Amino acid sequence: VKNFILADQPSLIAMDWGSTKVRAYLMHQSGSVLERKESEDGATRIAEGGVEAFETAFSRLTSEWSLTYPNLAVILCGMVGSRHGWREAPYLYCPTAISELHKGAVAPSETMKSKAWILPGLAMLNGNTFDVMRGEETQVCGILTKMTELNTACTVVLPGTHSKWVRVRNGCIESFRTYMTGEIFDLMLRHSVLRLQLVKSESFDPVAFEKGITYAERKERLELSAQLFSLRAEGLLTQVVPNELTEMLSGLLIGKEIHAELPNILPEEDVVIVGEEAVAKRYEFALKRRGLHPLMPVFDAAVAGMWNQACHAGLLG
Amino acid sequence: VKNFILADQPSLIAMDWGSTKVRAYLMHQSGSVLERKESEDGATRIAEGGVEAFETAFSRLTSEWSLTYPNLAVILCGMVGSRHGWREAPYLYCPTAISELHKGAVAPSETMKSKAWILPGLAMLNGNTFDVMRGEETQVCGILTKMTELNTACTVVLPGTHSKWVRVRNGCIESFRTYMTGEIFDLMLRHSVLRLQLVKSESFDPVAFEKGITYAERKERLELSAQLFSLRAEGLLTQVVPNELTEMLSGLLIGKEIHAELPNILPEEDVVIVGEEAVAKRYEFALKRRGLHPLMPVFDAAVAGMWNQACHAGLLG
Fold it and tell me: Do A223 and B192 touch (CB under 8 A)?
């Protein structure tokens, strides 16, 4: 009986701690998730409160688990490790072997040393092009851990506020590039001269979306800042309605991102899209149009990545 | 004595009525400005109040003049003629002869008919690229009126929130293109993830500005949305300070605009920059770097344009 109980013991708290949200998982030693909690104490939101705010937010979310199971290890990823996070886990520079992310991990505090680790983000310097990520590297780790059938050369696309295109070669993140696609979309919708011509909608209008994509594919060299204004003018001069114009904006932004990245993708590569279903489906649509067949995993890539890194780091004994 | 007084009589009120500001000029029949008034009743700001708000704003600024000189003609340009302005003056489509702008003018109201005109804006449809302007066409008219030595092929650059590049051929506005350069700069500064790394400054740092321009000139195909995020990353990974990063952002945005427009400029063309001194100087700097020698008139192009159109329209008797 005792053995049975021990085998059922949780062994890890994994926390995906982003800018706006925290997701905490109580994990069994097999890697399965036993419980899940969430809070709005995102790293950006509580940054002003300093270390104490992070400690409080951590306790609030996990103390129940820690009291019940006193010896849980803890692994964290995301903005919690930024300069304004709980404690800074300095960036590792690309290329970085996915299995070695944990080598850049830091403990949130002295008292948590050896039982809690914040995973580092990745940085890149290519000529004068700089780039950073925090959290996505752990998701990529999760993808490679669980999708063992992937080609050794693959591209992982992580759409969102700051969309990442991550080039993986033989288990290494070789390079990546970030597009402010989601943020620019949001800025246009909320703060720009276009805002009164746009409308936030949950539905998907593939015809208008595809029209926006074709705008992104013009042979003529057109700058984004000109194409955004052209959408405004189209709204003024034609019968296009706000919902359509919003879809066209989405298609334009995603289309430009994809158009710029396609030349970097080799014919034999697998392409994996990791993100919320609604936005991932838009990228899938746009990539299929260009002859690609992206994979869309349904598991939680961050959880899988944290679990993998906790194992590599020896956190699970 | 009477003749002398008559000759000194003002004959026109010219109003440059933009989104955020109104500038009114009392003009002598020789075309010189006798008095100047300004208000914050921009068309966007008072649009909610409808026609009455425009009538009130107009009276407030001009009634003193009208009472003293009862038979003044009135000419207006800018957003006052938009759909949400005083009265809509529908766009004329390019190509349009500069001398014929007034043919699309409308009276603000029935009672003001034949003594007051709102000049129209210009629209363009080129393939699926749409564009509009309101007010800049009148500035271009003023430029051509006063700078009679210009080549018959010239490009007028009007930097600002929405920068315009206007191609003029033999007295016609053949086409134009708008870049949301100023607005994107402002959105980044005030609302984006970059906002804490940037700072609004009146000074000019040519070294950092030029660095931003070189980022815009990369041979590698880089999307604006990626380059904006790269600036953020550079701010995180290097010792660059907010003032420098802000200059680099300015250089990047202006540089991309110029880089896209340069192929459209013929070797024999004159290039004229019309805008506020601080921003005009940045465009001058960036264009000189590319071997161009832009002209920078110091007169008020809008006033000159309105005067010219009032003459053409027969408003001055």
Answer: no
